[in-house]
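Predict the structure of Glutamate/tyrosine decarboxylase-like PLP-dependent enzyme.
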Amino acid sequence: MTTDPARMHSVTGDTTELVDLVLDYSRRRILATDTPLDKPLPESELRRLAGRTVSENGMGAERALAVFEHVLAPACITTDHPRYLSFIPTAPTKAATAFDLVVSASAVYGGSWLEGSGAVYAENQVLAWLASEFGLPATAGGVFVQGGTLGNLSALVAARDHARSERGNPAGRWIIVCSAEAHSSVASAARVMDVDVVTVSPGESGVLSGDAVRPALAEHGGAVFAVVATAGSTNFGIVDDIASIAALKDEFDFWLHVDGAYGLAGMLSPLARPRFAGVERADSLIVDPHKWLFAPFDACALLYRDPEQGRRAHTQHAEYLDTLTEATEWSPSDYAAHLTRRARGLPFWFSLASHGAAAYRDAVTASLLLARRIADEIDRRDGFHLVRQPQLSVVVFEREGWTKEDYALWSARLLDEQRAFVTPSSHAGRTNTRFAILNPLTTFEDLVEILDSMED
Ligand SMILES: Cc1ncc(COP(=O)(O)O)c(C=O)c1O
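Done. Here is the predicted structure for Glutamate/tyrosine decarboxylase-like PLP-dependent enzyme.
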């Protein structure tokens, strides 16, 4: 027997109940101040607790939501928890998280002006604001893509396209030059593009300089289509000497891409702004709002100095798309390796429009100050030492005498006891650990307690 094919889409009493349930849950979760850290469960345990959730006739919204709330969500680490200090955390503002629901509810298509002009207008205002913060010309523009990996790839594809159109293919393979401490997504982009990466050692400080890059450009000449400068390395939050790398553009022909997925947000604070000198000469750059710009997953702002170069590299052509591609209006799909897109810049837009830029500057400044304060505390403590002085909000340190196993056991215990999520990392073959601080709710006392736990 078939059922009414429109029953999932019509508005009925059941639908109202379902929507209320989901909104109630969302309201509780967004406003909760005591969401635990939670932790992953083995698949066998999830199978035991949740069982088989997909069936021919469904389990009903109430049960499905209960499974999510009581089994699945607690098996996901709370990435916006103030003691989530691993990798690069996320810490969306309440406004941004709440508005994410609005974006879904509004069924906005963010790919073209024709379909989503209002959303595109708002996203472009945010992109223009970012461009002006970074010193790019008012003609700069781009698009919000899924994440930094896709942002770096899309920028580098545009860079190669530009080089190819200017100078044709090189005799050998195309080359990207970047720091040995650049993010793994640069190597990933190179694999996808089937080009080579030449890495340059940034030396002890971790700061790549123009002097270190010059020999690579001199050696590989016209094969180099892009140099990637990192504005806030993932492991250390170190900013390359972008100005001296950009100065090489006067001697060599290359596209300067700045990967600021995590760190470029630091430029909003007067405390860190001078570190980013030179970014205004970038041909393209990225910064991820889902990192230090307090937006929910997933959003990367990709900006081109000359957006036309992004458009030429990425516009998809097809008969059914002629209406869009022959139009003169701004269509975000044209600026990266994607077509259909969620208007993922809107949660950030709503929060920024609501609170204003000054609130963002204050929140970023707070992370910088807290990182400095805890770094000083680590410096003072016997048995601890900083691997490098922090430049932004990542603090990397060693507990003297600890082996890799000691860090692993300690980290697992912290999570098991629901005290913090702090994972081991390493540098130059030595294990260490790090605080990646960007949640304004993280306190100095939180961090001190974690240090104390290494002395238990
Ligand atoms: C400097 C840098 N670039 C790129 C990325 C990749 O970004 P995503 O994880 O959004 O793909 C990261 C992620 O941490 C990063 O720190």
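The longest strand covers residues 224-230.
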